[in-house]
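Lay summary. Proteins are chains of building blocks that fold into shapes, and those shapes determine what they do. In this project we predict the shape from the chain. Here is one chain we studied, written as its sequence of building blocks.
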Amino acid sequence: MELHVVIDGDKDLTGQLYRQLKEAVRTGRLAAGEKLPPSRLLAEQLGLSRKTVAEAYARLTFDKLVTGRVGSGTFVADGAARQPSLRLQRPAERPLAGSAMAEHWRGMSTPLRHAAPAGSARYEYIGGAPARDLFPHADWRRCMLHALRQGARSRGLYGDAEGVPGLRDGIARHAAFSRGVRCTAADVLVTNGAQQALDLVARVLVEPGSTVVMEEPGYPLARLLFSAQGANVVGVPVDAEGLVVDRIPDGTRLIYVTPAHQFPLGMPMSLRRRKALLARADALGAVVIEDDYDSEFRYEGRPTDSLQRMDKKGCVAFVGTFSKTMSPDLRLGYLIAPPAVLEAVGTAKHLSDWHTATASQWALARFIEDGHLQKHIRRCHAAYAARRARIIRRFADDLSPWFELVPATAGIHLAALCRRPLDVPQLISLARRVDVGLYPLDAFFHFSPPRAGLMLGYGAIDEADIDPSLDRVRDVLMQMG
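And here is the predicted shape, written in a compact code that computers can read:
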């Protein structure tokens, strides 16, 4: 890598080089301890004589900005970089043609962008986080080595926007096996997490002023994403059966739902409501986004069909993710789009990022093919079921005076609603003092007054830690009176 220095003309060459290197050191662009190029090499790169470079280095050494080490080279001196009295000179700010739009994006709230101390407590109930200790590192390492071998044999060109064929086939088989989804590999689009899948559908269907319906309470990042596309987002309430379909307004173009495990409250959508939703979508000509974010983990009741499987008119876009079954670090999700929009979302994917990283796709394809994914899900299911049962027992016992759990049959979190007035922010603050991370429900309400309560994720907490941590929560609640 060449050091960026610009020499103008043929006058004061030593001075030009000296001043630019001095500025790079003093502003921190050349960090303390960093090695400068040998004088012969830098002279060749800049088209200068070696003597010119050597003289510039000598002046920097005299100023104690660099130091020479016999047999090693020339290095930036300790303490020379970024003096406290110096400030980087920034261009004067002036209004830009797109400043209003930039301000619009800058002013957006960013819920779920976890900042410290989120996720840092000893006992963590953070939502959406799978168990790190259950991740199959050895199996995944072997699959990544396979992916590297695949990469070594490839032509090194860009891949298909829709994804690696082997992974698309694996996802189609997985979705059919676990959720009864009707699809082939040709219907699958691999995405950078479920969030990109939502973005792609919105890009091709939403125009400024389009009406988009979503659940209230609901997933705030979906609401903000649709709003960013210029949509008129309408929150429709949920009850014990899920989305209240009768409240969907005329003119709706897109409907976003989480029927298997309503986010964040957790109740499943009843069969009656599912049929009503599909009928309403058909009458409106609307597309339904079925976000199936964590339904692989089901603990009670009989399996229910996905909306996509029930759909006879081609109006459901099924969105899945491996962030809950595997890890958010992978950033792998998928979209099974209805035929009418499949080609359009493929084009949008190609234009937005061309394709998802192929190495991780090859690795996941092998992981699914070798049966590791189903094995991992079964192992996590057993652990999560035990954690869920322990939380339910505690909230039915000594925590029942304060909270009531919302019935849920799937997922990796439970919602607890307050039975009586309670200062939830104070509870969260006091719980963190005793090293318990709790998180409120109010961030998921936007169109209606929030209901006080907690989201209790049980992916990131060990079963053995649940009782000790909830003992601390109970003690805090008793101290609060």
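What the prediction tells us: The first helix runs from residue 13 to 26.
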